[in-house]
Amino acid sequence: MQPDNPYASTRGSITSKQLPAFDEAMIQKYNRSGPRYTSYPTALEFTPIPVDLETKILKNREARAPLSLYFHIPFCRHLCYYCACNKIITKKNSDSGDYLEYLIAEIKLKRRLLTTEGGKNPVVKQLHLGGGTPTFLRDEEMIQLWEFLQTQFEFLPEDEGDYSIEIDPRELSGNTLKVLRDLGFNRISLGVQDLDESVQIAVNRVHSAELIENVLTEARELGFHSINIDLIYGLPHQTPETLEQTVRRIIEMAPDRLSVFNYAHLPERFKAQRQIKEADLPSPAAKLTMLGNTINTLTEAGYQYIGIDHFAKPDDELAVAQREGKLHRNFQGYTIMGDCDLLGFGVSSISQIANANSRYILQNDTDLQAYQATIDAAQHNLAIMPAVKVIKTSIKDRLREYVIMNLLCHDYIDFKDTNQKFGIDAITYFIDEIAQLGAMQEDRLIDMDAAGIRVLPKGRLLGRNVAMVFDEYLDKKHKNRFSKVI
Description:
Transcription Regulator spoIIAA; Arc Repressor Mutant, subunit A
């Protein structure tokens, strides 16, 4: 019998069926550049937004839909050489105060357009501060932002909502973690990348393992619900042995989640990476060994492989949601809050909003001065809004998004479920894609039958490759815009 939710797992918390199987030959065969699918269509399909469209989108959103709020803080005090983000390196404290004023102005612009039931404030289930370094904001500025948000939105109690922030452990003041916890933040993410000193020096991000351990200890004492640590493999001077030592030391610290990213060296696109010498980078073979070792070490330690670089303890909300068939993916990565409209604030931030039968993806200007000029102009002209780019998704896009996201979240697409939701015959509709997947089935990366397509253990690390088959936009014009899957 099929369960009510066809994506709910009967595999238990961790079993051999759930663990990814590292097969170097298959990775070598199928590894090619592709999107991370934080949206479908991807951000490469943005077009200039027509005047008044953002206003109409916000006014017409479903009033009952809860919100996920994202705030982009672009500032850092140090330049990490591996960085591929839009960051501003500065040590001027005044920058954060000026930027906070623009964030508050943007919040006011958007909030006035949001309709709600009974005139109440819109409900917020999730909030995330990313960057850059969000804790570039001083403690008093963080309090100011949070208290202002309480006047504009209705937040779920902190034991029901998901309120998170990215942290550079080098930049925490003595009281910052307590301030964040007292405000209601319940999840933190720490950028660690590597604990080996030679690697840290090569990427200009030096900190001790003791510092990381102390932050985790304080966070647990303060009652944060979940702690994530970011690691990167493929950095200069890394070896399989040194990375293994880092991973084992991190496991001893017992974070609830880990993100283990592949470093893509693209100095022609990212200026900071020009500080890294190619001769210092590990070979492709060494990187594959690092990946295989890391996967084996983490899964042997009891972490559940979620997908696309992410691991979580079996009792973490992400792992539970995956087993229950309730995991989602958006611009914040894997999430349990799939029913939310995403509302972004700040330079380069992205929103994702549904209304009627359409879904819109919007992005603010990626240039700080241009973003600030837009917010300034909006104070005098109500027709001006922050977004400069938009994607309007079609029903066909929504169908393909549904297939891609279920493959990436649950390693499965159920044809009967898809037929019922979209009024199609999936086998006929995707006959060309099914034919393209034939080689993957022969290589035992997937299994296909009349019920659906399941990603097998040997194919879990290549889930993006399976998903790419269903991407209608992935053509030659985009082939150089992505990093390789592994």
